[in-house]
Structure formats: C-alpha cells, structure tokens
C-alpha cells in the first residue's frame, strides 16, 4: 500500500513529528523509535522550519535503519529532502500569500524530486492561528487564518481540493497554545473526500480522541513528545485499549 492510500485508509492514525534540529543525540532518537513502535505510531514525519539537508538525511537514515514505520518528509523548505524517506508532502501553503511557499521552493527542487524514488503527495497546507506566533508563520512570512473564522478555513480547504491537492494539512503550528478546532475537520470532511491531517499544539489523549472522532486521518504530535517522551507510554495504553474496544 502506498503512503497516501494508508493515510486515506482510516481515521485516528498517529504521526510522530521529528524535528532533526532537536534530535541530534542518537541515543535519544533510538529511545524515541523504540517507544514509537510500542505505541503503534503509524508514521514518522520529519522536518522543521530551519533544518538543513544534512540533518534531515542523517535522521531519516537512522529511522530507516532501526524501524519499519513509514517515513514522510514534512519539509520547511526545498532542501529538506532525503531519498531514503517513503514519501514527501509537497506542501502548498495556501493559507498564505507568499509566492515562495506557493511555487518558489517547488521550482527549486522540482527536477531533483522528480528523479528521486519518493512518493510525492500534493498537499494543501493551511495554517490556523494557534494563539501565538509560531516558527512556521514567522519563517514563511505568512499570516495564519483566524481560528474563529471557520468559513475562510473551510473555503481554503475546498479551494485546495479543487486545485487537485490530494491531502489537506491543518496546522496550528508547532507549540501552538490552541490546536485546530475539530469542528473545522468535521465540516470539511462533509465536503471533500480526500484525507485530512491535523497538527499543532496537540498535547493530550482527549484531543487525539476528539480528532479521531471527527474523522481526521492523521494526528501529528511533536512538541509534547519532545518535552516528555513518556507521553508515548500514554499513547501506547490508549492505542491498546482502543484496539481492544473494537
Ligand atoms: C507542527 O503539526 C506539527 O507543524 C506538530 O505540532 O509540535 O505542537 O505537536 P506540535
């Protein structure tokens, strides 16, 4: 099964976001991999706002060597590539109006990506205000959509779908104080049939459950696990209890 089909296959899948800039220590990365395996994490997402290619390649190669969990590149710029990953989210930052993140980075890496053995997934990337200035908003020099304005967010999601994007990623930004409103996902799900990813400021099992219930295909967690790796143990307990409940 390719990665997009796996993403589409069900709701409530979990991705662990690894920012290579924050995981330089190999021992820590190996612990993360082991706990992620126990927690039945579905994907590793790799990327960050200011990460170098060398850092991405090094982390991806360690993940590949030590785990079977699929690796998806979630790049902050055109140089965050690695041939060893399984897929690349080819992000179009359509909540913003910065041409660099709508077409510029894409042109820069186009030939190289075409030649790589990567599944390329065209993705509507939509930033929702998460209650504080996040690195992604600063680095991309774009303004996130006001979180109380579901109508603009919804229309942006639909526009991306009509433009042929295969995936929608709603992101409140890493370390957001408030995560994306679940209602937004519920509403978009009624309008389009492509999968939805949500991330930014997700810090509890209750939030994971809420996103799963509205049909989010993948729920991305980064910061919370960077701060406390044992949150993966809570996820493990949650995952095993929800498997039993089936
Ligand atoms: C950010 O969606 C990701 O792009 C994850 O955010 O680090 O807040 O979990 P957190």
From TrEMBL:
Its EC number is 2.5.1.41. One of its GO terms (biological process) is glycerophospholipid biosynthetic process. Mg(2+) binds at residues 19, 49. One of its GO terms (molecular function) is phosphoglycerol geranylgeranyltransferase activity. It comes from the Bacteria. Keywords: Lipid biosynthesis, Lipid metabolism, Magnesium, Metal-binding, Phospholipid biosynthesis, Phospholipid metabolism, Transferase. The keyword Iron-sulfur does not apply. Sn-glycerol 1-phosphate binds at residues 169-175, 200-201, 222-223. The keyword Lipid biosynthesis applies. GO terms for cellular component: cytoplasm. Its cofactor is Mg(2+). PANTHER family: HEPTAPRENYLGLYCERYL PHOSPHATE SYNTHASE, PTHR40029. NCBIfam families: GGGP, GGGP-family, PRK04169.1-2. This is Geranylgeranylglyceryl phosphate synthase. It comes from Fluviicola chungangensis.
């Amino acid at each position: 099964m390719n990665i997009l089909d796996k993403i589409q296959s069900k709701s409530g899948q979990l991705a662990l976001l690894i920012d290579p800039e924050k995981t330089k220590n190999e021992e820590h990365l190996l612990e993360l991999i082991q706990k992620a395996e126990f927690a039945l994490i579905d994907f590793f997402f790799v990327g960050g706002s200011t990460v170098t290619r060398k850092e991405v390649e090094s982390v991806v190669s360690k993940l590949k060597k030590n785990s079977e969990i699929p690796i998806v590149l979630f790049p902050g710029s055109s140089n965050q590539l690695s041939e060893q990953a399984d897929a690349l989210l080819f992000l179009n930052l359509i909540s913003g109006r910065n041409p660099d993140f709508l077409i510029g980075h894409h042109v820069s890496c186009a030939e190289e990506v075409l030649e790589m053995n990567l599944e390329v997934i065209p993705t509507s990337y939509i930033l929702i205000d998460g209650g504080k200035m996040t690195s992604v908003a600063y680095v991309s020099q774009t303004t996130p959509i006001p979180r109380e304005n579901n109508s603009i967010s919804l229309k942006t999601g639909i526009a991306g779908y009509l433009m042929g994007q295969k995936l929608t990623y709603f992101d409140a930004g890493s370390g957001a104080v408030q995560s994306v409103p679940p209602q937004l996902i519920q509403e978009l799900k009624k309008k389009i049939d492509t999968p939805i990813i949500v991330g930014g400021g997700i810090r509890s099992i209750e939030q994971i459950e809420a996103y799963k219930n509205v049909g989010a295909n993948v729920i991305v967690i980064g910061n919370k696990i960077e701060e406390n790796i044992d949150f993966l143990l809570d996820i493990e307990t949650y995952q095993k209890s929800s498997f039993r409940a089936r």
